[in-house]
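I have been asked to look over a protein record a colleague put together. Alongside the sequence sits a line of tokens, each denoting a local backbone shape. Please read both lines and tell me whether the tokens look consistent with the sequence. I do not need a full report, just your reasoning and any doubts. I have pasted the whole thing underneath without changing anything.
>
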Amino acid sequence: METNKQRLALQDAMVFLGAIASGTEQAIGESANSISYLAGVNLGKRLSEGVTNTKDILQALDSTREVLKKNDYLWLFEPFKTHDQETIVQEDENSIQVMLVFRDCMIRQSLFRFGHTQKGSLCNMMYGFFAGALQNIMGQESSLEIVHAGENACYKKLIVRRTP
């Protein structure tokens, strides 16, 4: 029961953040996405300081999940393999790719609760968080791309660029 109270308190705070995001997006337009992304990068780097480095993407995702959990962030995600993929991790000479499903995302829930659309500045903050955390953990740049943003889950492609 305490977890539900904590979650409701968090969601109330996130509704406030949704209102700020909405106002910021209206006031400054597309720049809000960049500002939120950079804030997320800084947060991801700060919270993942001291995490053991790895080049293994699945270990890096486990570490990222632990960083989120340790800091009480409710961004639950999991790697996902489609029926036509042989492995969860897809690699080529330029990148490592993993599909992720976000089933229980505090940002998505907050956006719905406030009545604001997905794919805006708060979602960009999450992408920045992953980029910052993976920069610390893997030492490589990454991006998180929306494949599908839905009411029950979001489906995203994580791309970690190989360093030359």
